[in-house]
Amino acid sequence: MSVLIFDVEDTSSNICIPVASEKKFNAIWEYALKELNICRLGNGVWLQRNDLELILSDFCRIKKWAEQYLPTMEANYVVSHINYILKELPFQWSKNPHVTRLWMG
Questions:
Q1: Is the distance from CB of 74 to CB of 62 less than 8 angstroms?
Q2: Using CA atoms, how far apart are residues 97 and 7, in angstroms rounded to an integer?
Q3: 6, 26, 39, 104 from 22: Cα distances, Å
Q4: 18: alpha, beta or left, given left = phi > 0 and alpha = psi -120 to 50?
Q5: Neighbour tally for 65: CB within 10 Å
Q6: Cβ proximity of 17 and 4 under 8 Å
Q7: What is the DSSP letter of 3?
Q8: Region of residue 16 (left: phi > 0; alpha: psi -120 to 50; beta: else)
Q9: Tens-digit pLDDT profile for the chain (105 aa)?
Q10: Distance between CA atoms of 76 and 59, rounded to whole angstroms?
Q11: CB neighbourhood size of 47 (10 A)
């Protein structure tokens, strides 16, 4: 299983952004979210288009946390996924202006 960001309401948009395997998400991401007190992101949350800047900022906070606190191999894994999300999420929302929210789960 994996944690993805995707459009469950309009499958024709074909938005599907990988975040992490469920195992990695539970082991690393959940801990970071808790440590950083981030509630906008998680496994089983709606991401709202009008919160895009805040969402991207939260991903950047997790990225900095990973670089500071994780062993190099795990940090590289998280950082590479976040770099992709930081590029892909705004791109997908600009390509699909009718999509107002995405599911992260």
A1: no
A2: 12
A3: 15, 6, 18, 12
A4: beta
A5: 19
A6: yes
A7: E
A8: beta
A9: 689 999 988 877 889 999 999 999 999 999 999 999 999 999 999 999 999 999 999 999 999 999 999 999 999 999 999 999 999 999 999 999 999 999 999
A10: 14
A11: 20
Judge whether 36 and 61 are in contact, CB under 8 Å. yes
Contact 51, 40 (CB under 8 A): yes
DSSP 8-72: SS-GGG--EEEEEEHHHIIIIIHHHHHHHT--S-STTEEEEGGGHHHHHHHHHHHHHHHHHHS-H
- Tokens 């459009």 -> residue: 7
Structure tokens at 81: 């996924």
The single residue listed with the structure tokens 């992260």 is 104
Residue whose pair of structure tokens reads 């950047």 in the numeric block: 60
7, HSE (Cβ side, Cα atoms, 13 Å): 18
